[in-house]
Design goal:
single chain, alpha/beta, Protein-Tyrosine Phosphatase, Chain A
Length: 393
C-alpha cells in the first residue's frame, strides 16, 4: 500500500529490501544511478568532515543563491521534517516530489536492494535534475569513501574537519578516518580542507588522490591572523580565498556576532570561490550581499537561541562527539565572559542532555562540566538511546 507520507513510504521500501541498516559498498546504488539516466550537468560540491558539514553546506548554499544561482541540497539527518533532507533553493521538497521520485526509483531499480540513505540520495538526484538546478550540494552521511553521495564525481570536495566519530566503522585513529574522508575528492578537481591539525598521513593521501588541494592558513583563511582549531568568530574579520584566476578574493564579516568556528566561515568562502560563475561572482556588490546574508546566518540545531521568558535563553545544539563538545564549551565560555552574549556570568547554566548509546557520551560531557551548573539527563525514546542505568554503570 502506497502512503502519501514519504517517510512512511520510504520505510516500506527499505523493509521490502530486508537489508541491514548500513550496507557498505557503492556497486548497488551506482548501478541504479546509471539506470536512472538523468541528463543533468550541474556543478557539484560534496561536503565531508566529522563536524561542520551542515554549517558549511548552509553557508555555501546561501552564498550561491546570492549569485542568482539555483541550488539543490541534500543533508542529514533531518531535524523537524523528513522532507528537509532534500531542498531546492532553500525550500524542502514536497511530499508529492518525494513520492514521485521514490516510485521512479522503485520502477527502475528492479530487484536491486537499497538502504534508507541510498534511497534518499537518489531521490535528491532525481528532484535536482527535475528542477535543473545550477549547483548540487551533497552532504556526506557517513565517512566518504563508501557513502552513497560518492557515486558522483565532485567538482569541488570539502573536508571541514577530521576527528574521532563512528570509529567502529571508519577506524579508531584520525589517520584511518582521513583515508575514508578524502576519498570524496577527485583527480584534478578542487579539494578544500578546513581542518587546522591535519593527520600525519594527510599529505600523502592528498598526493595519491591528485586533487588541487587548498589548505586553510596556506591558501585561504584570515587576512591578518592564523586560524586554529580553537578559533571562534565572534566579532568577525576579513577572510581571503584563492580564485582559479589567481586573484585572491576578500570578504569582510566585521559585524558577525554569531559564535561559529572561524574555519567553517573560511572553508565556505573558499569553496564559493572555486566556482567560476557566469554571473560575475567577483563583483563587489555580490560579495557585499553574501557578507550581509552570512552575518544574518543561523542554523536550526546549531547553537540555536530561543527566548523562553524574561532574561532566559534556550540554546539548542545537536553536537554529539567530544570535538563538537569542545567547540560548544568555548562558545559557552565566550558567552559567559564576554558580556556580549545572552548568558551573564551571574546566571545559572542548565543542560538538558540525551544521546545515542553508541556515542562517547562521557567524552562529550567532560569539556562542558566547568560551564554547566545543573544537568538534566533523559533517555531517548528509541532502542539506541542512552539509558540512565547505562550511565550509572
Amino acid at each position: 500500500m502506497i502512503t502519501s507520507n514519504p517517510e512512511e513510504y520510504l520505510n516500506q521500501l527499505v523493509a521490502e529490501n530486508a537489508l541491514e541498516e548500513i550496507k557498505l559498498g557503492l556497486d548497488r546504488v551506482a548501478d541504479v544511478w546509471h539506470k536512472l539516466n538523468l541528463n543533468s550537468r550541474p556543478f557539484i560540491y560534496i561536503v565531508g568532515g566529522t563536524n561542520g558539514k551542515g554549517t558549511c553546506c548552509a553557508l555555501l548554499e546561501r552564498g550561491l543563491r546570492c549569485q542568482g544561482l539555483s541550488t539543490g541540497l541534500i543533508c542529514s539527518p533531518h531535524l523537524l521534517s523528513f522532507n528537509e533532507r532534500v531542498c531546492i533553493n532553500g525550500e524542502a521538497a514536497s511530499d508529492e516530489e518525494w513520492i514521485v521520485a521514490l516510485n521512479f526509483i522503485k520502477a527502475i531499480k528492479g530487484a536491486t536492494p537499497l538502504t534508507y540513505f541510498e534511497y534518499c540520495t537518489l531521490v535528491a538526484f532525481v528532484i535536482f535534475a527535475k528542477h535543473e538546478v545550477d549547483v548540487w550540494i551533497l552532504e556526506v552521511g557517513l565517512g566518504g569513501r563508501l557513502d552513497a553521495v560518492n557515486i558522483i564525481d565532485a567538482d569541488c570536495a570539502l573536508l571541514t574537519s577530521i576527528g574521532l566519530d563512528h570509529t567502529e566503522i571508519l577506524g579508531d585513529t584520525r589517520e584511518k578516518i582521513a583515508y575514508e574522508k578524502i576519498a570524496i575528492a577527485r583527480p584534478d578537481k578542487y579539494l578544500v580542507v578546513g581542518e587546522t591539525q591535519l593527520p600525519q598521513n594527510f599529505s600523502q593521501l592528498a598526493k595519491d588522490v591528485g586533487a588541487n588541494t587548498l589548505l586553510i592558513n596556506r591558501d585561504f583563511g584570515l587576512k591578518n591572523g592564523t586560524i586554529t582549531d580553537k578559533s571562534l568568530n565572534i566579532e568577525g574579520d576579513t577572510f581571503y580565498a584563492h580564485k582559479p584566476t589567481g586573484t585572491d578574493r576578500y570578504i569582510n564579516l566585521s559585524d558577525y556576532e554569531q559564535p561559529m568556528l572561524t574555519s567553517n566561515l573560511a572553508t565556505a568562502w573558499q569553496a564559493l570561490n572555486v566556482y567560476e560563475s557566469p554571473n560575475k561572482f567577483a563583483d563587489d556588490a555580490t560579495t557585499d550581499l553574501i557578507s550581509m546574508t552570512w552575518q544574518e546566518f543561523t542554523l536550526a540545531g546549531r547553537w540555536q537561541k530561543l527566548a523562553i521568558g524574561k532574561n532566559k535563553c534556550l540554546i539548542m545544539d545537536s553536537g554529539h562527539n567530544p570535538a563538537a563538545a569542545e567547540v560548544l564549551a568555548r562558545m559557552l565560555e565566550q558567552e559567559i565572559t564576554s558580556g556580549k552574549g545572552s548568558i551573564a556570568s551571574s546566571k545559572k547554566v542548565t543542560a538538558i542532555f540525551s544521546m545515542l548509546s553508541n556515542k562517547d557520551w562521557l567524552g562529550f560531557m567532560q569539556p562542558l562540566l566547568p560551564f554547566v551548573d545543573v544537568w538534566h539527563i533523559f533517555p531517548l525514546e528509541t532502542t539506541k538511546g542512552l539509558g540512565l542505568e547505562e550511565m550509572r554503570q
